[in-house]
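Reviewers of the previous submission asked for a worked example of the structure-prediction workflow described in the proposal, so we include one complete record here. The input consisted solely of the amino acid sequence. No template or homolog information was supplied to the procedure at any stage.
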Amino acid sequence: MDAPTETAETALSDLIDRLHGRGRLRVWSLVITLFGDAIVPRGGEAPLAALQTVMARLGIEAGALRTAMSRLAGDGWVVRERRGRNSFFSLDRHGQHAFDLATRRIYAAGAPDWDGSWTVAIAPPNGNGEHDEALKERGFLKIAEGVHLLPRTRMPNGDAVLADMLVIHGSSAEHPEMLRSLWPSDEIAAAYAELIADYTPLADQLAGTHMPAPIDAMAARTLLIHDWRRIVLRDPGLPTALLPQDWPGETARRLVRDIYRRLSAPSEAWLDETGLPALVDPKGFGRRFGG
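From that input alone, the workflow returned the following structure tokens.
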């Protein structure tokens, strides 16, 4: 008997099985991915029915989605509006701000350019690490208690997080090899390698002539960005000069970029069919991953 023919749909099914096999599924996190990736570029609002369709294709029941939406609304991430018998959701300012901070890193074309400059931020002795997470979001690396290092000097003007810190800008030509071992962890490297292994079958199938159905493309795109986001936002995002030579992050980025480009047209077609507004900035959307 011939072996079953592998298709993009079966590759997607395997990815969905892995999603549910990781343990307790954070449905709210998947919803945020869907909003940031597909809905915000079209104005930021979507009907509950559209969310249900994508989540159902990912094997998530309507009750679990309703619970997730209630949690997001309660935590100030989304706003719900009733119009007749229909419910519409949009990211509120908190949710928009959180995804805006992440967007540049999620859709970056590659590792950041670097001219050898550094920024050092030193927190007051009584800071108690209150700004650690915010500094991490901005690309800083915590190298000791209260000491954070950023391999570049350009910072947003008037950043309130840095207001009560000693901030030093400078450059150095000496970068000991041991410096590379301080930041990118074996855990993140393993996560990149796992993503490459998990998504290569889908990439292989999409390289053929048959595109998946629009809803399958939308589901696959959501899952792809969700899995990529979970890794890249934990990665310090260092310039290539400071990365180990065998770092798998850029290989994973190229794979994600290629899959995303192949899924974009059919998934955008599904969003059109669902009745969402047109892309607010088509050129900006086209520049994702350096496109």
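The mean pLDDT is 87. We consider this example representative of the routine output the project will generate in years two and three.
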